[in-house]
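Structure, all six chains, one model.
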Amino acid sequence: MERQYVIDLKEGARLKQVFLCKHKNLPVDRNGRPYLTLTLADRTGSVDALLWEEAERQARGFTESDLVHVAGKAVLFQGRLQLHLTEIRKAEDCPLPATEFLAASRVDPGQELDELVTLLGTVEDPALTDLIRVLLDDAELMEALRQGPAARTIHHAYPGGLLEHTLSVMRLADVICANYGQVLNRDYCVVGAFLHDLGKVRELAVSQGIHYTDEGRLLGHLTLGLQLLDRAMAEAGTADDAAMHLRHILLAHHGKLEHGSPKRPKTLEAFVVHRADELDSALTSMKEILEQSSANGWTAYQALFDRYLFRGPKKS
Amino acid sequence: MERQYVIDLKEGARLKQVFLCKHKNLPVDRNGRPYLTLTLADRTGSVDALLWEEAERQARGFTESDLVHVAGKAVLFQGRLQLHLTEIRKAEDCPLPATEFLAASRVDPGQELDELVTLLGTVEDPALTDLIRVLLDDAELMEALRQGPAARTIHHAYPGGLLEHTLSVMRLADVICANYGQVLNRDYCVVGAFLHDLGKVRELAVSQGIHYTDEGRLLGHLTLGLQLLDRAMAEAGTADDAAMHLRHILLAHHGKLEHGSPKRPKTLEAFVVHRADELDSALTSMKEILEQSSANGWTAYQALFDRYLFRGPKKS
Amino acid sequence: MERQYVIDLKEGARLKQVFLCKHKNLPVDRNGRPYLTLTLADRTGSVDALLWEEAERQARGFTESDLVHVAGKAVLFQGRLQLHLTEIRKAEDCPLPATEFLAASRVDPGQELDELVTLLGTVEDPALTDLIRVLLDDAELMEALRQGPAARTIHHAYPGGLLEHTLSVMRLADVICANYGQVLNRDYCVVGAFLHDLGKVRELAVSQGIHYTDEGRLLGHLTLGLQLLDRAMAEAGTADDAAMHLRHILLAHHGKLEHGSPKRPKTLEAFVVHRADELDSALTSMKEILEQSSANGWTAYQALFDRYLFRGPKKS
Amino acid sequence: MERQYVIDLKEGARLKQVFLCKHKNLPVDRNGRPYLTLTLADRTGSVDALLWEEAERQARGFTESDLVHVAGKAVLFQGRLQLHLTEIRKAEDCPLPATEFLAASRVDPGQELDELVTLLGTVEDPALTDLIRVLLDDAELMEALRQGPAARTIHHAYPGGLLEHTLSVMRLADVICANYGQVLNRDYCVVGAFLHDLGKVRELAVSQGIHYTDEGRLLGHLTLGLQLLDRAMAEAGTADDAAMHLRHILLAHHGKLEHGSPKRPKTLEAFVVHRADELDSALTSMKEILEQSSANGWTAYQALFDRYLFRGPKKS
Amino acid sequence: MERQYVIDLKEGARLKQVFLCKHKNLPVDRNGRPYLTLTLADRTGSVDALLWEEAERQARGFTESDLVHVAGKAVLFQGRLQLHLTEIRKAEDCPLPATEFLAASRVDPGQELDELVTLLGTVEDPALTDLIRVLLDDAELMEALRQGPAARTIHHAYPGGLLEHTLSVMRLADVICANYGQVLNRDYCVVGAFLHDLGKVRELAVSQGIHYTDEGRLLGHLTLGLQLLDRAMAEAGTADDAAMHLRHILLAHHGKLEHGSPKRPKTLEAFVVHRADELDSALTSMKEILEQSSANGWTAYQALFDRYLFRGPKKS
Amino acid sequence: MERQYVIDLKEGARLKQVFLCKHKNLPVDRNGRPYLTLTLADRTGSVDALLWEEAERQARGFTESDLVHVAGKAVLFQGRLQLHLTEIRKAEDCPLPATEFLAASRVDPGQELDELVTLLGTVEDPALTDLIRVLLDDAELMEALRQGPAARTIHHAYPGGLLEHTLSVMRLADVICANYGQVLNRDYCVVGAFLHDLGKVRELAVSQGIHYTDEGRLLGHLTLGLQLLDRAMAEAGTADDAAMHLRHILLAHHGKLEHGSPKRPKTLEAFVVHRADELDSALTSMKEILEQSSANGWTAYQALFDRYLFRGPKKS
């Protein structure tokens, strides 16, 4: 039986295949008998599922974040498809790559990486060009950047999200520099934007969902990014003064102590990278949220922004 | 005797002419005799001055913010020029324009106004083009925008500053829109940026210094700007929905309640105008502050940013 | 069958009539079959209801905030009445007025309006009496004030609540003025209290529940109230100075920027109106909350006040 | 030579008499010679004074807050009277009462005390009337209330200020109760208002200026007031429940933890006393500040309110 | 049938005995029939229970915090034991002491009390030794200290917890003093630590759970502790200066106004007691939380500390 | 002429020698003539000085923080010694060590270093002992620790202060561990305390006063300390898990994001080091401040603690 993606499921379809189990519950009915409620996912979306037969025994065989092999069929319930399962077990040796089960970027990472390299190619300061070469030549790092998410939830929380966000911040830094001319050192702004979130390749791990690593939780991506940068600068032989400025941009990019930056931006370039990062994060989150606004134009309450958002004026 | 600008004063020069009196003090020496210490200004800068003869009597004749007619000479003291005066009195009928005594913009307002009109000319939404025409046709308003300061102190605090700041925010809104494509309604972002600080033409008055008006202090430029906008929209016949969105952008542009916006940005467009405004204000203030940094690259403590600022990396 | 109010329901009563549907849920039992749980309301209160037959099909026919026609009977369950329904559908052409389905004020609005007019009649300043006349002559506005709620939830959240609150704030402003004699301008305090929440007639809409309007959420009742006031002052020919003071009182009545006032009170009169408003809102909320305190005198935790409240000392 | 009050000083007058020394400085001129600058006060106001002869020796003989005997004359300087002294020494055995040297209340304390007693006389609850009698019979306490200041600086900071403030809060509590009828227990509001600041008779000491006592600084007037109240309640035999409510009103009257109340108001009565106290303090401070506003109606920046204040609308 | 402790329950065991009912719910199944879900507890732990027969009738007979007599058996469900009951009723005359139903301290209170007395015995200042004797001689107070909890929830929330916490704070104060030598007055630190939470014997009541008393909620343990201390100092004849310092330590031990101290620590000794208290509370809470960390070393989110906690480095 | 220390100066003494110039001002008298006011310091204290002859010319020759060669004499003025100078010039080749001009520690650094080494010698975990050896063997680092200050101002702001503070925090961590037994990993607490402020050897530079380095201001001692630690751990071959825990303790020791820690303490050991650091800093600052309290026991207002401090109870 061919594998079916969540996005392609039809009412009445029967399936025997693997999904990622995102949520699992074992509530109990009035006779003290448990049944399973599940959320199953692949890279195209997620679907609710239920299982009543031998629920307790079957529930023992897997946990959340496992890949699971299920058998059942798709039924229409309250206008939405759900799966009624007869069987579920841990998928021990799933040959499919982990990315089959995670939300995916909607843009082409190859094209984005090209644009990123092109932007870095416009940097003229020789104190930075060697460092750029060392970083771009680190194939493992570049692959991690290309595959990495920028967050566990909220915005850019999917493989490729880190690259998308990094590139967008670089573009914003670039156009802001254009507006202020000689006032800003464009080279440092662009390279700083490139560097700012690199530490996320060690803060977040992707494997059947996106998780924080232990060092991610205890040290954070600013510190981890600094270690990556230090190693690359040692290899590139970056001069002390340039090194100090780049470290400061990276450390200060959260903008405020209470947002986890141990130092606040004290140079114009650190300030620009901080604000470009903040702007891209906020606008991308808002955009995603507004895609789920109601017919009346309003979203539900958004704790992230402590407000309701409203779809803005229509294009004429 | 020809009038001499502060910037052109030479040691030993004698002068009899008008300045703006910015500060005036009448301290007393140990014999109980007062003497006058003053700060005098024209549009090119300011200079300290002292007067010992009949200080008390002469001090009665004017107050701070008066134009004063002085006689004296320039002497070098501790490496800086100061004026030793023999005479000072209020300049009752000074034929010079007020702008002779205020700091001036370094850019050409005519050219800036052209760029602003050109940017507004790219707006396509017919719901907005009528409004734009009404506002641009209001010669008095356009002159006030061209002459107005954007603040009493800090950034853009000189005639022409309002136009400089408005144009810069419009440019930033424009390039941010370019980065996010169809997600943002560019027309509303650009027009919102144009409108956001218009109320300052009634909040601030220029006459021998920049002052807040009473209604500026009691109502603020958001409310005053809304009244200007309402009048123009009534004349242009702006549709209710467009009117509501523009009013929201204007009201929300301070971004937070505690910064004086009665509503926070709830549309993407209001958010973009807010962040573009904030970015231009901060970068312009920092730039001006950094021009006064010490030889070691650091500025004095800046209460506005609650930090010391550092001259960033040098251009290679 | 005669219509029965919630407050009059008896165990065993059968009914076929219209209610407002305030909440609607469609949970599912272990066989995958949904059932409906509802909260139904009229102006005397609300009651829970359940429906099992063809729950999914019937649920499609209406949404929350609809008027619904139901058939069923009242049963006693755990000491409280609930409705067991067999049928529910949207009530398309309900001839009853919307106020039949909303909580109602316990005081007589006619008598309150009389007292309000009487209080305004004591204002002596000719700069204000013309304005008062214009506002009282605006029949539509006065009707909106009389019918309007002062909030969507919490205190005075029912038709007539706006008038109740407005009058109470006027009374408090009046007695506070009496305590401080010539220090305060009583006329401005009383008129300011009258004006302070008028914008709520456009911020809130009543129709099967109380809802915020779009302009209410994007602009707020301070800005909307200012527009009402501006129009009335234009008609009354109010002098600029008086207009500025009244606008300030209205804008500043929330007292703090973070509560949505773009300017904080800077005159004694604006301060008095702010504090009278705050006092009436808090005391009325607390009073309503304390009516639901437990036998031991304590209420549940109140997020609004971030505390538990206690019934105070008994009257001797 | 008859004693002259500050308020009655005339240019050229010679005087030999006692003042309170509020400020004392010993600056030095360029020859390394010190001279004395002083602020001298009596109950009608204060005046600047200077002394050049043997300034250092004479300065050794007294400190700030001493009563000093001076000889000198009044001269007009910069439009204001100042004293030029030839002699100054500590006034060891000044026969005048301390109140001769402190700012005085403008109202009649006897009349105020009568009104306070009358208000307490309207209390009906027998659980409170015994306590009232015990307190009113404590002649020492009543005298301290009558003589005491309500603060060291800011509002009511003069002998009699405590009585003025206490009475005003009682009046406000009374009229607020009248507006809310049976909702509030008026007896507890009025008695609570009477009690709320009693502890200030031990927190502040008057002797050549107003000072905090050590226990005032380490324990505060809430705790000290509670001790006074506990003693009186023990004598009056106040019932436990009434005692608990009164203690709560007293402890909670600052309204917030961060303002020094260990518990926030949890009964309506505690809330009313808190708000009445806050209102009287704020309005009285603002009134005093506004008396010093400039010709343009604005005061200087007021750190207490974090704003500039504006004289409100004129009485017609 | 012998009574069985929760900790000793075995699958299949039948029991007829008394528990404390900590939580009680009466949800309803799809046929409108309620069933009971309960949490039952004794001093060794707690267990979930269900009851289906005549649930509504049986539920009427008791409320949360009652001791209940139950009949049923223990079944294994989802790997955990739960009780399926057939009968539940209020246990009217349970002969067992209340402590049988509360979590218990793991340390020996007798031994702790000995250590506390020994520590107090090292105090040398005669101004304090009389007071110590009065307090230790108050058998009722000492018994309340020995039996009392230090909190309703969180750390030390069991009989004996107050003694544990008090002793630990005394020990910390002692070793901190040792590190700073003559700088600190060790006697006041040790006695202050002993006194700091004594008021909790009146703030909290133990009877089938730990509850706040009314005076606990309206006055708090700082104020109640001060009353205990005042009485003991009156009996011991403590000198005014010593009394003031002890009162200050007690009042200030929460460290900040917003944590409920009406005065912040102003002496070194008050500061030390505050920090020792804070340290013991935090470490004890964290220790208890970490005992429930997952296999990966992390706990669930802890609102008390606004973070996730991690089991630290293992002992080598 | 033999060099005289500030602490030994006598009235009338003449001196020709070197001091550190801490403050320099050039005010002007009424004839427009400047004079110099100075604060001069050596390691025993500081003294005010004045110079009138050719003040402007002499002032050109040096700036604040210079070592200066002066000639003059000590005079008694207002009960305090001051220097009246006739000559001042920059001391170009002063043979004295910089420490001659800085406040000095009152304790013996050699003895302290011994105690620190002894404490580290009690660490048993082999994962840490190698690292300890590497650090103790780094002679340059140990010398920097021994010579370094712990702050630029406030507490421990003198050479040796870093060692004093580090040792005190280690001692506190040690005794806290003793109170909680097996709950805490004592080895990590002691080593973490040793490491916590090591980065200050690069954040602060001593040379005629204590100054922040550029990297100190842009990166901070947490980041700089982490780099030192990383290098030592690489050399010692510290295992990943131990490395992660030590890094976390170091990064988290400021306790809160807003105090500059990019991560807050998430292990008990990180929490203990944070609190021990905080306690030592606060107590040492308070102790120093209290040494300057007035006769009445109170200090001046202390912005650092936002309060006045009071000398606590006297030792009996």
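Chain F has eleven helices and seven strands.
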